[in-house]
Every structure is written in structure tokens, then in C-alpha cells.
Amino acid sequence: MRQQLKHLAPDPPYLGRTKTPSSVRTVPVGDTVLHALARHLELFPAATELAGYPSGQPELLVFTDERGEPLRGNRFARVWGRARRDAGLPDGVTFHDLRHYFASLLIHKGLSVKAVQEALGHKTATETLNTYGHLWPDDVGLTRRAVDEVLGPCVSAQRVAER
Q: Which residues lie closer than 8 Å to 108 by C-beta, 6 or more apart?
């Protein structure tokens, strides 16, 4: 992500600088997401152009409302509401909850604090740990297993030698 939609009424929306420098990032996605995006673009070809940042050159928007306008405010809320219902998610699930789900998934799959920080665009690893630290595995159990894996074979070999 290197730019974001900006809208200062009464001017038309435009693509501008991200909120923070750490927001500029590449989020790696797998084949599932790439196939879903390709399918989306087959069904809804990108046609709306906005001036891109910083070049000012026109860029096509991948996601727009039913009128081909940029998704913002109430329009996005309607689109999200339909998507949430279609996915069978409960009423209370917000779009921002998807970000938390993404972070939780990365942590559950064993990614480091640094990798999660970069994927979320947090400025520091401390910010990531303050928000998601409770989701990482218990270090006490990991420490015991690490020591047992390394020292266990040595102790077993010593016991055999003592016999």
C-alpha cells in the first residue's frame, strides 16, 4: 500500500499520502487472494480513475460502489454490510475485525512479531505486542520443550553410559 483515498469536501476524492510512513508496505498474499481478486476484476472491471500519488497520473480503482465511485463512508458501510451478511458473519463483525483476524492468523501460524508488525504497518514492534502479545504462545512451555529437545538426548546417552 503506497497511497490511500482522501476526500476533503467539497473537493472530489483523490489518492494521497498514507497516514504514516510505516503504512507504506507490501502485504504478501497467497494464491487464494490473487484468484479472488482476479475473479472480482472479471466481474467488476476497474474503470474509475483517480489521480495517483505522488505522480498525479491516473490510476484505476479496484473497488468501487455500484455507481463506480470510490468507496467511502456510508457507501462502504452498505457494501460491507452486504458482504458480511453474504459471508454469514454476525451483525457485530466490523471491517476492522478482519484486520484483527489477519493478525491473529499470522500469529497462530508462527510468524514473528517483526513479520506481523510489517504486515499490519505498525510503526514499532511494541505497538504490535501491546495489541496482540496475548496471542503468541506461552514462552514457558516453549522454553521447556527447547531445553528438553537439546539436553534430553545428552542425558539419555549419559544414563546408558553409566549402566
A: 135
- For 54-73, what is each residue's pLDDT tens digit? 788 888 899 888 888 888 77
In a domain, 24, yes or no: yes
- Dig out the grid coordinates for 88 from the structure: 454469514
- pLDDT for 5-42, tens place per residue? 888 888 888 888 888 887 888 888 899 999 999 999 99
The answer to whether position 150 is within a domain reads: no
CB-based contacts of 72, cutoff 8 Å, min separation 6: 5, 7, 13
34: left (phi over 0), alpha (psi -120 to 50) or beta: alpha
Cα 29 to Cα 102: distance, rounded to the nearest angstrom:
11
Domain containing 67 equals 1-91
- Rounded to two decimals, the pTM is 0.72
